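Hi again,

Forgot to attach this to my earlier email, sorry! This is the prediction with pyridoxal-5'-phosphate bound. I've pasted everything inline since the attachment limit keeps bouncing my files.
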Amino acid sequence: MDSRISKRASAASDSITLAITAKANAMKKQGHKVIGFGAGEPDFDTPDNIKEAAISAIKNGKTKYTAVSGIDELKEAIIEKFRKDNHLEYGKENILVSCGAKHSLYNIMQATLNEKDQVIVPAPYWVSYIDQVMLTGAKPVVLKTKNFKIMPEKLEKAINSKTKMLILNSPSNPTGAVYTKEELKKIAEICKKNNILVISDEIYEKLIYDGEHYSIASVDEEMKKLTIVVNGVSKAYSMTGWRIGYCAGDKDIIKAASQIQSHSTSNPTSIAQWAAVEALRGPQQFIEKMKFSFKERRDFMVKSLNKIKGVKCDLPAGAFYVFLKVSKLYNEQVKNSADFCTQLLEKEKVAAIPGSGFGDDNYIRFSYACSMDDIKEGLERMKKFCESLK
Ligand SMILES: Cc1ncc(COP(=O)(O)O)c(C=O)c1O
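Structure tokens for the complex follow:
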């Protein structure tokens, strides 16, 4: 081990996602037509009204430090959003604006977790949860799910005196699973009984095709006090590069998370904050248009994948990913999800993400945040690759 590097940093995992993406990019540079099913961001441009708001902010000199926790105008827009969409009432003291939802998650974990605390992370999980928990010195406890959802009896069994937090993500990356109100109420009962904090990552809230979004924080006042809701503008408004996320929760936790932010990044970019005000308060039709395209692509992708022998996937209710089981096709050369994705990329020039990074090696993740033409071409190549494995 390199003694210059801290134990914390050494424990952070190398991202297999980044490795595959880097390889795909190198192949593209060499002139190969790579089909990218790896994307974690919408393939739509940020709407013009949002860009204009950022340009006005620059022209009007809104280019200086802001309050660490965000400008009042954005906090007010976030409070309105929670009231309108989630029937949740918050004050400004309950809101922290950060540099993307990932940063919100990081700040909350740094503000609440101590060494030896345990955090329950249902699998499949979004890759960064595990590393972010470990960066605090706490221990992630991976919880197996059924049909990609928590089984309440298993959750109850996983809880012990060290359990401090549960991480929920609905709609989920990578599975697209969306919890119903009834399911969340059962989980909430267990969390309340055991006084467990919940981080509810709702970044894909606006991208639901079947069913509707429900926040566990809206179960009742007691659950609201235990929950820190994380959301942001990255996915809903195709603003991944602008880096604006936010969280809402108990004022003492938010204050502690703001302290962490104040000594690390200070405020998120002033210009992007003004753009986020326009995203939340301006016309919302963009989301419906994007959702319409995503749904069409999802339906086509799932139907086509299920026609391939050895591949199986359910219809995901939200987000823009299909998590497909490919383990039936594993053989001497393709032993796991990393082999599968590496060879799919090398042989057929299709980039996808191995399930091992999400805690399930039987699966791989396809993103449908790409054109229908690319989806059609990529699925043809995928079929050819799967047939070659038999
Ligand atoms: C489940 C989940 N949470 C949080 C994030 C981070 O979002 P942001 O780009 O706002 O940091 C992502 C991004 O991929 C995600 O998939």
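The radius of gyration is 21 Å. The chain is about 45% helix and 15% strand.

That should be everything now.

G.
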